[in-house]
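hey so i finally got around to running the thing on that chain from the lab meeting. sorry it took forever, my laptop kept dying and i had to restart like 3 times. anyway pasting the input first so we r on the same page abt which one it is
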Amino acid sequence: MTTEQIKELKVEDIKAAAEQRGCPVQRALYYVTEFLAGPMCGRCFPCAMGSYEARIRLQRLVDGQGSDADVAALKRIAEDMAEASFCKKGKDTAKFILDWMAADVFKTHAAGACPDMACPALVEYRIIPEACTSCGDCKDVCAFTAIHGEKRKSFKSGYLPFEIRQKKCTRCGECIKVCPSQAIILAAAEAKTTVDV
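ok and heres what got predicted. didnt touch it at all, straight out
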């Protein structure tokens, strides 16, 4: 097997691993990151610079900081790579990005939502008060002290209900795993307002 065949095989391995991610934007980010770390040769400008710029734009979308301009730039970058890359690896990378962009998921990310609920910056863990039994299991398992509230005691009234402090929450998901009443849900993060200066 030649070195070129090994590199081609690795590209397919990266794509297969990327397909395991539920969110198309995360798939594209994983693929481009791994492509830059491995099989990209860096000999042609459209592929090398395009891949680096694509990774920056994809990371912004996953981090909830992306915009429609990032989506438009990604499309332009991928189209340029598909046309001008010298080798099949660069053209394939562009094709993969464009295939994943076929749905409107990238635009949805730019608007601040992840339909697959897979991007931590775009989701929140919330406690449904009506379903919460105040057992405290979620608070006990939270390593980041993001959950506040008091365990229910039969002789006490007026205890603080459990809530998740979003600024402290790391979206690890441990609280959902231990909740016996399924009172913790994954929900779209509230839109962050930005102020133009």
